[in-house]
Amino acid sequence: MSPVRQDVESRVNLLRRFTRRPGRTAAEATALVVAAVVAFPLYWMVLSAFKPAGEIRSDEPRPWTSAPTLDSFRRVFGQQDFGRYFLNSVVVAVAVVIASAFIAFLAATAVTRFRFRLRTTLLIMFLVAQMVPVEALTIPLFFVMRDLGQLNTLWSLILPHIAFSLPFAIWMLRGFVKGVPEALEEAAYMDGASRARFLWQILFPLVLPGLVATSVFSFISAWNDFLFAKSFIISDISQSTLPMALLVFYKPDDPDWGGVMAASTVMTIPVLVFFVLVQRRLVSGLGGAVKD
Amino acid sequence: MLGGLLAYPIYQLGLISVFHYTQAQVSGGEPTTFEGFGNYSRLFSDGQFWEVLLATVAFAAACVVSTLAVGCALAVLLTRVRAVPRLALMLAALGAWATPAITGSTVWLFLFDADFGPVNRVLGLGDHSWTYGRFSAFFLVLLEVVWCSFPFVMVTVYAGIRAVPAEVLEAAALDGASPWRIWRSVLVPMLRPILVVVTVQSVIWDFKVFTQIYVMTGGGGIAGQNLVLNVYAYQKAFASSQYSLGAAIGVVMLLILLAVTLVYLRLLRRQGEEL
Amino acid sequence: MKLSVRMVAVAAVLATAACTPQTSGNSASDKDEKTGTLRVWLFQEVNNQPKEQVVDSVLAEFEKEHEGAEVTVEYIPVETRAQRIKAAFNDPESAPDLIEYGNTDTAGYVKDGGLADVTEDFGAWNEAKDTDPTARQSVTVGGKVYGVPYFVGVRALYYRTDVFEELGLDVPETQEELISTAKEIRAAKPDLYGLAVGGAYTYGAMPFIWAHGGELATGKGGSYAAAIDSAAARKGIEAYTSLFGDDNCPAAKCAAMTGNDTITAFAAGKAAMAIGGDFSHAAVEAGKVKGAYKVVPLPGLKAGSIAPAFAGGNNLGVLKSTTHRTLAVDLMKRLASKKAQGELFEAMGFLPTFSDVRQQVAAKEPFVKPFVETLAADTRFVPASPAWAQIDAGAVLPTMFQEIVSGKKDVDSASADAARKMNDAFGSAG
Asked: Where are the domains of chain A?
């Protein structure tokens, strides 16, 4: 058994011991109650999507409806090009997640393992762009996209989203890379591992929980973006994303709440699916290393 | 390249803030003129700006503290429960996080509506209005902000705990330390890099809250009592395409946030924490 | 690889960026091609298909008439209009030739240099003579015409027939009666608002100010001065704000309400009266009060008079950057023609902007009668100044009403503050 494996395995056992302590029943009850409270607004959203129009805001706010209807969902799916919007959103979100995870992993390793001057300054500079109102950046970004000839293409969404989610991802992964003992790295090299092998087969699995957390972050921020989507996709509706299918229902003076709730429900589900797909990595991040 | 995508707009932002630059200039209808610090002096001489700034700082601080407390507590809770309750809590939290802010705010408003909301019925509050009083309106918005931003903290910190080397936890567990003690003296130091990121991110977001205030208080509350900087910037500048004034507000926000971040990092360093 | 090309491009952009912020040269196009593709942006409605059918039939005729001309229509969500239309002004490449826009945006778009002057074409259009004066005002800035009216929206008084019958009340005929009736209802039925009003409901409050002879602002040709603090306007403000209180609509709830909130309250049976638009009809029909309400014009000061109402609605306009000006103007006139507006009313319920067409549809559809009467009596429009966008976004008027009804300020000082803010906006936006 290699020292790496031994180390990892003993950690898993200890972590298990830490998590199995008395008071678990109380903890689980608390978790379920909190989950119910947190989920209630979501339930109300879904419920409102199924309520007939006159019932959504009525003076009898019942937590159920006796006349569920699919009308609101029909208005959502009945929109021209809805499928196209959905597909575009998936393309943008997936591209952003993969690109930012990949770049952030390498960049985080670089800033953690190699010391150079102005490192902290560089890290803070990464954050600066997030500190101003995005509205203020849309005009300059608009001109950048125009000069690159990328207006009205999905690139005009993908590139800024990668740029905006990277700072967080790098900062975040840095913490994870730092948490990996340098002794582990030395041990790996002593085992004869190459640098690339160490990076992808040892370090990568160890920081996987962090990667999953940053991916969820970049997925959600790309998926739920309204501002870039309406500022950079101007004349080519076929490149629009899902939030545009939601905004249709926000009509001044006469909003269609049923449509809003149904469209939001439809928008939220893919995020949950994405999370269910990746959450095993989050929960059993160390398991990946054990299997190696 | 990506650095360029961030740096160049920031550079433009500073530039715009010292010009007279509205939509008419952008689309070439009128020439741009240099204004120096005119936009800034306009901003600083507006008494409302200072009032809004103060409210923003206080509100953001309350949001950051609440979000971090809830997020960290639930992250620790997650490590102590089995798969089913853990998945339930995670999915609920993810749903809250994933709901578009504009919809989340609307739903919370509906839930707490004086005439049509279920919350007042359940609590027996009659037709009490949550958005009329300044503090009660801020409190309601705070609840929504915590609701949609604690999941980020929870998932991130949970991921951090999963990556903590177990020898450390072993030592603590063998000492028979309580969960609070393990958190305080073992996990916090280990998770410091992650907690720093989460805190800095929360500060940035909560300082820039827009949608929740805009939707839930009807664009800034009764007679503007619930205005925060970003909404103020929108009303004063962006909605009417006064980009130069908006850019000036943006620069001010940037400087404040930068100062807060640097002070925070400096404090950590003084405590002997290497970043 | 594509990315590296881009990197070079960004570097180039950075290197060439001079020391002024970027602008785009959006000058009027010299070209006026008679063939090719025309791009049109219309607003996407929640239920858009009937609108598409009306538009498609107009397009079919247009394309038959102009050989070699093609039209592509994109329906954009109203909520995205600000970004898209500004972007269209910034990037003529993505700009359409013809757009639908909200009529309160006219002055702003003109100032931004985006809309083409069509004064001559409008004057030469034989149908234009029947366009109602307020609708014409909504496309006019500084004496020049920048589009054609597409449809109008106007508000009137919705009231509950069952409540009025039960309490033995008459439909109010003056503003004074309106206020006293509202309070009478509230006294008899404390769980109802007499007349649902909103502190953020600017367009519901305006008729009160106009009925007393007040104005938002006075002036012509680009230079406006606030008049919201005049004696007449203050009387109107006084009348409207007197409706906030426990004897009609408690300030704690009503100060924050928008127009849509008041209609929601009415539709849910929480209010005996509300000021709602022709566009609110569907929401009320879907509510609890279906079949138990009627609509009359909002009464003015004298018995039998109608309070002046705000004429909202949308216009069509040609962009300055179009390379197909003649074709675009022709298509604009066809889309907004009497025939097309009549069809649009049948499809969507949007009120036509021609007085004669409106009379015809009112005869066919009794529901719109009170709205058509209101439009025929006296309608007003917001100041045709780009500053209006700033005043509107800055919530100047809602803030004034809310300061008064929450007891923070009295009518005099609140209206004086509002006037000051409006004048600031007029001064800075020109």
From this structure: 3-13+81-291
Pair C98, A271: CB distance under 8 Å: no
The token duo for C345 is 């009313």
Determine the structural domain holding residue C412 and report its residue range.
155-310+386-429
Cα separation, C421 vs C20, in Å, equals: 30
Q: Cβ neighbours of residue B82 under 8 Å, at least 6 residues apart?
A: A24, A28
**Which band of pLDDT confidence, cut at 50, 70 and 90, is reported for residue B132?**
very high
Query: Which DSSP state fits B198?
Result: H
- In terms of phi and psi (left: phi > 0; alpha: psi -120 to 50; beta: otherwise), the region of A57 is beta
User: For C51-101, what is each residue's pLDDT tens digit?
Assistant: 999 999 999 999 999 999 999 999 999 989 988 998 888 888 889 999 999
Contact between B177 and B186 (Cβ < 8 Å) = yes
- For residue A286, name the pLDDT band (cuts at 50, 70, 90): very low
Are residues B260 and B203 in contact, defined by beta-carbon separation less than 8 angstroms? yes
CATH: 3.90.10.10, 3.40.50.720, 1.10.3720.10, 2.60.40.3080. Which one for A3-13+81-291?
Answer: 1.10.3720.10
pLDDT digits (tens, 9 = 90+) for C274-323: 999 999 998 999 999 999 999 999 999 999 999 999 999 999 999 999 99
Facing residues of C44 across strands? Answer: C77
Give the chain C residue whose CA is nearest to the CA of B35.
Answer: C20
> Subunits with at least 3 CB pairs below 8 A relative to chain A?
B, C
What's the predicted TM-score (pTM) here?
A: 0.90
Distance from CA of C372 to the nearest CA of A (A): 19
Residue A60, φ and ψ in degrees, nearest 5? -120, 85
What residue type is assigned to position C118 of the chain? V
Q: First vs last Cα of chain A: how many Å apart?
A: 12
Question: At which residue do the structure tokens 């009303």 appear?
Answer: B235
Q: How far apart are the first and last CA of chain C?
A: 49
B162 with A15: Cβ contact below 8 A: yes
Q: HEC states along B4-21?
A: HHHHHHHHHHHHHCCEEC
CB contact under 8 A, A103 and B2: yes
Partner residue facing C80 (CB), from A80, A230, A252: A230
Size of interface B-C (CB pairs under 8 A): 133
